[in-house]
User: Which sequence fits this backbone?
């Protein structure tokens, strides 16, 4: 947990070895926590993807079957449509059930992981020598420890709702398309690969903006915490206006990097995808 200087908060950390090492260490810790709670994380990540298959793909296949069955123009009787309606509704409801069950397990995996990582983060602070605390803002350390655990939830949710819920349905779509023509599967995989190759450099660029945003956020928290901790000195020397101005500059710096990172995700990464 290295200290955040004002210069760190003011620009993206391009190639900062400490930051890269910290990110790798956090990812290893998160993956280790997922493995430790695999009886929760495995179904929690898989079930939303399976739920998406039954909610979006299977009903569409039922509709396609209806169109193929009654393509001669005759009006089907209610009895003839009933099995298709039951299949449509049953698939959709089963998919929603899988989603609810997956989220139920994911909530518990998130809670266990965040709690465990919060405790380990605090224990890691206790293992440091006094010089470590003298060289760091108390507020910055506080925010880092809290974010270390809290970010696990975002990590898990990204895997469940952005990765699994898309990858599993694509696998199902590939199986269905294979029955029509293997070239359709090749085209699907090719388009996904081209999109991934095009988006990957943008993701790395956005990560630099996210690093700058988080560094600025840490600096805001550090200044607020240290100002409150030393409120007696602030009042004694009547530095309220100076501390308020410093806080306003820190917040504005965070706002600038936050907007840049969010805009980059929206206008570059999502648009290209």
Assistant:
């Amino acid at each position: 947990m290295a200290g955040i200087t004002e210069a760190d908060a003011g620009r993206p950390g391009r190639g900062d070895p400490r930051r890269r090492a910290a990110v790798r260490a956090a990812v290893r810790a998160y993956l280790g926590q997922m493995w430790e709670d695999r009886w929760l994380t495995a179904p929690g990540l898989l079930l939303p993807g399976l739920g998406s298959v039954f909610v979006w793909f299977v009903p569409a296949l039922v509709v396609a079957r209806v169109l193929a069955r009654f393509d001669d123009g005759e009006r089907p009787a209610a009895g003839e449509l009933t099995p298709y309606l039951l299949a449509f509704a049953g698939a959709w409801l089963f998919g929603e059930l899988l989603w609810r069950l997956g989220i139920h397990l994911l909530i518990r995996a998130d809670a266990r992981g965040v709690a465990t990582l919060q405790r380990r983060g605090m224990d890691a602070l206790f293992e440091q020598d006094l010089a470590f605390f003298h060289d760091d803002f108390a507020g910055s350390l506080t925010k880092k420890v809290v974010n270390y655990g809290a970010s696990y939830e975002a990590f898990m949710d990204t895997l469940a709702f952005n990765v699994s819920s898309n990858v599993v349905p694509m696998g199902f779509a590939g199986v269905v398309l294979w029955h029509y023509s293997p070239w359709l599967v090749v085209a699907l995989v090719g388009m996904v690969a081209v999109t991934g190759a095009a988006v990957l450099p943008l993701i790395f660029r956005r990560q630099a903006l996210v690093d700058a945003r988080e560094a600025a956020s840490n600096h805001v928290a550090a200044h607020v915490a240290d100002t409150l901790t030393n409120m007696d000195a602030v009042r004694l020397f009547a530095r309220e206006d100076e501390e308020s101005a410093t806080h306003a500059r820190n917040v504005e710096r965070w706002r600038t990097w936050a907007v840049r990172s969010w805009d980059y995700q929206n206008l570059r990464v999502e648009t290209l995808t």
About this structure: Confidence is low (pLDDT under 50) at residues 1-10.
